[in-house]
């Protein structure tokens, strides 16, 4: 059996027919939540019957979850699936490989920890947890010149305002 990876977390019920919101934690939403796909929770396997998007929120329906009460019982559960192959393109990384890496400046000073990768049409964003809260960094070479898989660190150019508050010198 291959490695199990987290692909999402169930949120609240949506509507009366058993749909739930899911916070995806995968860059393969269309594959992971396609009709017929299976995901595991801590105690059972769920089969996806369909998914859709509503105002940027992923809605998923599962076989055997046909009403709001059943859907609410799933709230907060992590969804797991078998791992998929690592990306093969240069400078392309699986989210799960990156999450948890230290984020440092070019001199190696700690800036935070990578907690998520958001995939957007224009570019991906790295979500970095800093002492001041979560910050988003565009995942582009000009700002992220190095991803060091061996040492589990991501180098980010610390432009003022990107990972820290900008001081107003008025």
Automatic annotation (TrEMBL):
Q: Which UniProt keywords apply?
A: Chaperone, Cytoplasm, Ribosome biogenesis, rRNA processing
Q: Does the keyword rRNA processing apply?
A: yes
Gene3D superfamilies assigned: PRC-barrel domain, RimM
Per the record's keyword annotation, is Chaperone included, yes or no?
yes
Which cellular component, as a GO term, is one annotated location? ribosome
Q: Which residues form the Ribosome maturation factor RimM PRC barrel domain?
A: 98-161
Domain called RimM N-terminal: residue spans: 7-81
Principal location class: cytoplasm
Free-text function comment from the UniProt entry: An accessory protein needed during the final step in the assembly of 30S ribosomal subunit, possibly for assembly of the head region. Essential for efficient processing of 16S rRNA. May be needed both before and after RbfA during the maturation of 16S rRNA. It has affinity for free ribosomal 30S subunits but not for 70S ribosomes.
Q: Which family does it belong to?
A: Belongs to the RimM family.
UniProt remark on domains: The PRC barrel domain binds ribosomal protein uS19.
The protein's assembly and partners: Binds ribosomal protein uS19.
Kindly provide the name given to this protein in its UniProt entry: Ribosome maturation factor RimM
| Gene that this sequence comes from | rimM
């Amino acid at each position: 059996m291959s490695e199990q990876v987290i692909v999402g977390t169930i949120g609240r019920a949506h509507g009366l027919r058993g749909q739930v919101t899911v916070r995806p934690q995968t860059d393969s939403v269309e594959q992971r939540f396609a009709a017929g796909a299976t995901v595991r929770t801590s105690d059972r396997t769920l089969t996806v019957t369909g998914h859709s998007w509503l105002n940027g929120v992923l809605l998923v329906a599962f076989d055997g979850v046909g009403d709001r009460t059943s859907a609410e019982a799933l709230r907060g559960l992590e969804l797991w699936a078998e791992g998929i192959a690592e990306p093969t393109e240069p400078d392309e990384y699986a989210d799960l490989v990156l999450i948890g890496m230290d984020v440092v400046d070019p001199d190696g000073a700690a800036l935070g920890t990578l907690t998520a990768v958001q995939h957007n049409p224009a570019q991906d964003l790295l979500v970095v947890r800093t002492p001041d809260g979560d910050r988003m960094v565009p995942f582009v070479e000009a700002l992220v010149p190095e991803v060091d898989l061996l040492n589990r660190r991501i180098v980010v150019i610390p432009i003022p305002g990107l990972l820290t508050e900008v001081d107003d010198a008025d």
